[in-house]
Write a structure and sequence with these properties.
alpha+beta, single chain, 30% strand, 3-stranded antiparallel beta sheet, 3 strands
């Protein structure tokens, strides 16, 4: 099973210039690909990172077959549209 910890999240956030310390991480959604094949390397995991300074962030990890950049960008636009509706 694909597992992440504070170190993994910190590295991902640092790549985007975010250096705030992480208070906690909570798993929001996981697609259980390994349920049918434990050796499968596909994953989709969405977590929320609560930061000591600033707003919480949602981080999505994906390694799926047949996923294109176009699909990912479309999903990101949809998530952004939902966020705007919430405001």
């Amino acid at each position: 099973m694909f597992i992440i910890d504070h170190t993994d999240i910190r590295k991902a956030l640092n790549d985007f210039g975010i250096y705030s310390e992480i208070k906690c991480i909570s798993e929001l959604q996981r697609y259980h690909y390994e349920r049918y094949d434990p050796d499968l390397k596909e994953v989709r995991l969405i977590v929320k990172a609560e930061l000591k300074s600033g707003s919480p962030l949602v981080v999505r990890f994906k390694n799926e077959a047949d996923v294109t950049l176009e699909i990912i960008e479309s999903q990101s636009r949809f998530a952004d549209a939902l966020k705007k509706m919430e405001s």
